[in-house]
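Design request, tokens follow.
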């Protein structure tokens, strides 16, 4: 059981590091100072949150 928790912590760390890399890749040039809300980015963020919630629900259900 303890090894499963270690694997879950490692997976979570890699998951969040991947999200950080995605946010860095979407960065705009310095000339574009006005921020525009991108509907695709919001949809993707909601999808990530739902997948992460499903992961924890299945983890705690077992």
């Amino acid at each position: 059981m303890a090894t499963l928790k270690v694997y879950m912590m490692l997976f979570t760390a890699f998951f969040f590091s991947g999200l950080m890399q995605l946010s860095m890749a979407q960065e705009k040039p310095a000339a574009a100072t006005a921020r525009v809300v991108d509907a695709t980015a919001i949809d993707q963020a909601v999808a990530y949150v739902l997948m992460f919630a499903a992961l924890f629900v299945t983890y705690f259900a077992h």
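Comment from the thread starter after seeing the answer: thanks! The mean pLDDT is 75.
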